[in-house]
Design goal:
Layout lengths: L2 H16 L7 E3 L4 H4 L1 H9 L3 E3 L10 H17 L8
Parallel strand pairs: 1-2
Length: about 90
Amino acid sequence: MNSAGFIEVLENGLIPYTQHLNPSQRLMQDNDPKHSSKKVKERLEANKINWLKTPPESPDLNPIENLWHELKEYVRRVVQPQRKEEL
């Protein structure tokens, strides 16, 4: 995916969703180039979406990695799928 694809995700998913949130909510994303391109920043600003600006190369501040870890642990511990279809 490139920044144009990410803008499509913003327009079709995130932006309509954020219209129902409290204005103090913030978006947190990593510093992948598609997330931090000038066009993406302009689109976020135009739609009054606040986002946390994180420093580059900051694995400790990457909540996505932590979220995936927690989700995998939950599936392994609680769900315990027996077949691929159960995932």
